[in-house]
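Internal tracking record. Fields below are filled automatically when a chain is submitted to the structure queue. Please do not edit lines marked as system-generated. If the sequence contains nonstandard residues, flag them in the REMARKS field before resubmitting.
Queue: standard
Priority: normal
Entity type: single polypeptide chain
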Amino acid sequence: MKILIADDSRVMRQIVTRTLRQAGFGDHDLVEAADGQQAFDNTVAEKPDLVISDWNMPEMTGIEVLRKLRAAGNDVKFGFVTSECTAEMQQAAEAAGSAFFIVKPFTAERFDEVFSPILG
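SYSTEM-GENERATED OUTPUT FOLLOWS
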């Protein structure tokens, strides 16, 4: 399976990648996006099976990316790994079709819990 990791922090993309490996998902094809526009463009071009997105990114926020994908008819599994967590954000994510919402700091165990049903 192909996983797109979208975060404007290169270090955070590396941490997400490392945590995916620690959780046992290292054999998947990983691609990255450094901002919201790249996340949208790469999702359309690369057709990943899963998008793991930060909430706050330049060019387009993660929720804007999700809404734009859904408006275009793209139903990729999409969720958030973010440092911010309000009830309003979680409600907006769910309403837009988010599959998960993981709050930083996260662990390999949390990734396993969330991604095992999605990635098998």
